[in-house]
Structures are given as C-alpha cells and as structure tokens.
Amino acid sequence: MMAVRAFNAGSLFRSAASPPLLTFCCRLRPFSSLPFRRNSDLLGLRFPVFCISNQFLGHGGGLSHSAHSLVDCVMEELTAWRSRRRVRASVKLTSNGELLGDKLVNRELEKGFLLEFKKDTDRVLLGVAQRPDGKKNWIVCDQNGVASSIKPQQITYIVPGVENFDQTEISKFLQKAHGNLDPTLLEIAWIELLEKNASITAEELAEMIFGSSEPLESYCAHLLLSSDEIYFTLLATKGSRSIYGPRPTGQVEELLHKKLAKEAAEKELQDFVQLLVSAKAKPALAKPAKSSWMVDEKIRYKIESLEAYAIDAYSSDEQRKTAGRILKAMGLTKTASSAQNVLINIGYFPVHVNLELLKLNIHTNHSDEIIAAAESILSESPDSDEMNREDLTHLKVYAIDVDEADELDDALSATKLQDGRMKIWIHVADPTRYVEPRSILDREALRRGTSVFLPTGTYPMFPEKLAMEGMSLKQGELCKAVSVSVILHPDGSIAEYSVQNSIIKPTYMLTYESATELLHLNLEEEAELKILSEAAALRLKWRRMQGAIDTSTLEARIKVVNPEDPEPSINLYVENQTSPAMRLVSEMMILCGEVVATFGSCNNIPLPYRGQPQSNIDASAYSHLPEGPVRSSAVVRIMRAAVIDFRNPIRHGALGIPGYVQFTSPIRRYLDLLAHYQVKAFLRGESPPFSAGQLEGMASMVNMQVRVVRTLSASSLRYWIIEFLRRQPREKKYRALILRFIKDRIAALFLVEVGLQASAQVSTGCQVGDEVEVKVEEAHPRDDFISLKEVNRSGSG
Description:
This protein is an alpha+beta fold.
C-alpha cells in the first residue's frame, strides 16, 4: 500500500517497501514534533494530528484515518495557510517578524468599561462608558462627573479586565496609577526588548515590569508607554490598541541628551522665575538695582528678552520664545503688557517708564567716543572767524526762554534810530565755531536730528558739556554768535538787514513769565524790551495783512521731578501763546527766518527754505469762534502741510512771509545747523559745504527722525497730564472748551487748566466754542485713557 504525504501543494509517492509514516510516531506527541516540523513551521502549517504507537487516533481512538484522510487534513491546512499568507501580505510586521495585526485586535466598547479619551487637544481623561449615542458615539462619565458624547477616535485606551466600573472610583484608580509610575522601569524593559528586537503592548509591558496584567498594572504600563519620549516609539495603532517598539541605542542616547538639556533649561527657567518672584515681593527701596540683572550672562539674556517683549522689539524668534516661556511659567498671558508689569514690579522698569522712548530706540546717551571728541574740541578748537566778528557787547541783550531751558540758542537786542525806525538784532548761538561739516560730531547730530525734550528730561543733540558750556549763550559772558540785524519800515516790513559773525554779552536770562512781568511794569531802564515788544506788534500786524493765520493757543508744559520715583512730583503750567513775551519771541524768530531766506536767495545759497502753500483760508469764516484754542483748532485742521525747497525761497502762507528758513536753534535742531554751515561758509567767502541735492538727502533723514521725536514728545506730555489728573480729587471741576463735535453729542474738548484735548458727551444745545464744566471719572495714563463727565454748563464763549 502506498502512503502519500502532501507538501507545499505537491505529492510525494512512496512504495510499499518504503517505511510507513506511522513509524515516525512512536509515542504521544503533537504533530509539530514530527521529523518534518521544520518545513511545516516555516510554512505556517499546523496539523491537528497525534500519533500513538502505529495508529492514527481519530474519533473513538481506533484506527480510522486512511492515507486519504491524511491528505485531506494536509490539504485543508494548506488552504488555510494560503489564506493566512494573503492576510500577512497586508499586515505590518515588527522588526523581528511578529504580526502587528495579531496584537491590534480592538475591543468592542460596552457599558461599564473604563476607558481613557481625549477631551480636547490638551486634556486626556478617564471615564466610564454609559450608553451608545447614535451609531458610533458613546456617552461617557469622566473623573469629574461630567457626561459627554465622544467619538470612537477620541478613545485612546480601554482598560482591560474591567466591567461595570464604578464612576466614583475613577479618581482613586487614577491616584493609584500615578503612584505606581516609575519611568526607570521602561529602561529595563527597553534593554530586554532591544536584545530580542521585539515589540510590546501595554498589557505585555505590565506583565514584564509588574508581573501582572491586571487592570491597574495595564493602565500604568499604558501611561508609561504613551508618555514616553525616550525608549519606545509607536509602531501601530488601531482604535484603542497600540503597539510600541524599542528605539535604537543611538537614538535613545540622543533623546536622553536632549532631555537632560531640556531639564537643565527648565531648572534654569524656574530659578529665574523665582528671582522675579522674590524681587517682586520686596519693598520698593529694597528691590535689586537694574545693573544687578546684567551680571550673569544667562540672567541678562532672559531679562533683556522680557524687555524686548515688553516693547515689541525682540531681535530674534528665540528671544520672543524665551520671554513667552518666562511669562507662561509665571502663569501670565503672553502679552507685552504682562512683560511690562513684571519688569515694573521687580523694579527693573520705573513705575512710569516711558515705553515709547524704548520702543523708538531714542538714543538718550552719547557714546564715549562722541564725548571724547566733544571734550577735545572744547579744549583745543580755535575760532576761525575770530578776525571777522563784529563786537556787539555794547548792546543790552535779552535771552528769553522757558524756565527749564538748558540750551540757550538765541537772544534779542533793539534800539530806535534817529529817524524813529526800529532796529532789531536776533543773536543766534554759533555751534559751527566748534563743529565742522562731516566731522564725527556732525554725523552724530545728523543721526539724532534734534534734541529731545520730555517732561522727565532732555536728551541733547550734542553732548551736554559741549552744548551747555561751549555752544550755549550764557549771561554775563562773552559769547560767539551769528547776529541778524533788521531795520523795519513803519508798516513792519523789512527795510534793511545784515547777517554777520559777532561777539555778544547777554545781559538778562529771562523766563516768559518774568519778561511779561517786566513788560507790564514798563520800566524806563528796560526801554529796549519795550522796543522789542512794539516791533513784535508791528510785525504781527504786517504779517496778518499779508494773509498770515493766527494759530496761537494754550500749551501745557510739565516738569517731572525724580521721574524714577513711584510718585514723582509733577509741575504743570499752561502757557498762553498770546502772552506779550511769547508773542515777542515768536515774532522775532519769524523775522530772523525771513531775513535769512532773503539773504540766501540774494546770494544763491542752497538752504532748507520752508514754505506752506496758501490754504485759501478765509479767516473771516472763523471770526465767530473765540480766539485761542477753539479758533486755532478749527484753522489748523484745514491747513496744508509745509514743504521744503533747497534752491529758492517759497511763500509761507500761514506765516504771511515770502520765504522762511529756520535758523535760531542750531544747538537743538540739525536743519538749523545746516543753514548755519551754508551761511557761515558764504560769510568766509567759501563755497557752501553742501549742494541742494545733498541738503535734500540729509533733510529727508532728519525729518523722519523729527517726526518720531515729535510723536514721542506729544505722547509723553499727554501721559503726564493724565497722570496729573489721576492724582487730583475726584470732585475737582475743570473748564472745557468745545472744539468740535465728533458724533451726535460727543464733543472734542480742550481742558483749559491743563492744556489737554479729550472727548465727552455734552448737553443738548451746546455749540462749538461754548465752555462746559467737567469732572474726571477715570484716568489711566498707561492706557492713554481718560473719561470725562459734564457736570455743569457755564455758558458760551
């Protein structure tokens, strides 16, 4: 009889002389242990046949299987093997050939199951399945007792071996789980699995490291694997089932290095945050000095990152991220305001820090190189114009400026000629006596463009010592100047003029208040001051005849004493630009500008000639409005912007003169200094140092900087006015003029006592120009916010 064995879809035939298959089975053992086990294992064949002695065991234990039944058995297994092979082709393998699909059998969710799910992107919760919600969703009750509907894809793990879990026990279960977490166990498991090149599930890991795959241990293993970023990587996920594999040694070493670096950075961050918290808790006088944050390089980088964040001026994305991490670690929102408050609270910023000054990167100090150059010039510079200076020391000279002025650029003299005409001298400080075009000091002045005047301090265009000691006019001392003399016609127009280098000796240094008082006293010994006042009135009348527009108003001035203090002293006063002394100075400066423009035009000197296109303003259209802030505000709103030409004068419609050059502030304004360079070169018989094209290029740079400084000055002044109002009693009332209506009854107001524009709702029937009384409801200078409420209408103006 022939015995047949099926093998890999082929047939092997044996003769009767061949040893029967049964001779291979000499004792009870599984088929897989037969001599052909190796081939069948490789093919994945599993034969459910056992042998006893020389018999095949079938149903009843007797000899019931013929060779034919054996072939059927083998063929059935072969068919099943082929089917598994097709499945295997579509299922991932682990690195050692394990079938991932075999480990990714997902559990069907049932009521009472304990599961982990994603509530949102940041939160993972434990909950108990309550009931289906539609076809796929389930209602679950989480650890907080909140019921919600979740989708299948939100489920991250179903805790095995749990049925009918009590929702009230979730917190206790979580507490036990987190108490059992020991990440060092992962390293041990990683080493063993790496050697075997094997993958693992949460349940298998629980068995390996805890010796049990009970629900608690399995969930602990899941937490370890799902949160691990070092030893294991996710190989595959199906529903709530995941398989992990050990990372290569090199990768683990790299990740460990990064982890240690991250932990060190985190500790460094926490240490820094603790420094901030400690500094914040200290009283104002005990807070660390700003310089103390600069000693350690790492601390310095972090504090500077916060500062950059506070003023929106970070230099790199990393600096921005560093500040963001600091704020987050302190539990604060990632905003510039948060960073500002932190720096104020630790004493790094003063309470009233000028953020705009920092944001605009205004240079408040001069470099050592610039200071050294200034000191060298003061000690060594000869006066190249000494032989050509007119001695005007016999004249009585008045220097009139604001009380806090540090740089005195100009002064005035006057006399009456025998024919009754008035002769005026406008003496202007001569900084070109020290500074040459294109020198290091000139380039620095060009870069700054202007001196910066703020309520909290002055930041001069030139180094302070040079500006104050060398260039500025000083009472009772011989001073080098450029003097513009003018003889006026009886109608106020210019009859004669001259421009010359001079030496003067200022007699008086007056404030506007003291000069006004002297004018009111009408003292015989101050006849020259009276002549100046008369000349100013004559000039104003003449200019108005030429179409000049009067924009005089009230202007607030503030001096803050000790601005670094939390509650510095604020000295506020309001100047009336129509006061006799201010009118006098203003008219003389305009007169000087007209003379220099005429002088430049007659001698073909390139200068920054300022003009303003005629606005076709009919002054009579505003005559019904009260003079001062109301009329001035209305007129200014429709005036056209000024323009500059560098070759020829252009009419200045607002001033009512044929040409105008700013000339009287060369210590504090760079364009005035440029005019001095050009005029002084002509007086020496030299060619102008700059062409019209060069002047235009420099003026473009300067005007950009001047606009920035003007914005800064206005915002700083407004800040301190609002801070002043914030400190006043709540019941205090203020006079307010209605400038215009913004919408319905919301009006733009001018607070007369403080020189501030704001808005508020006013009563029905109020008109532009009326005066109302208001109270300050709220005032927040940092937010540029002020709330006013009308309390009483005083009548019309």
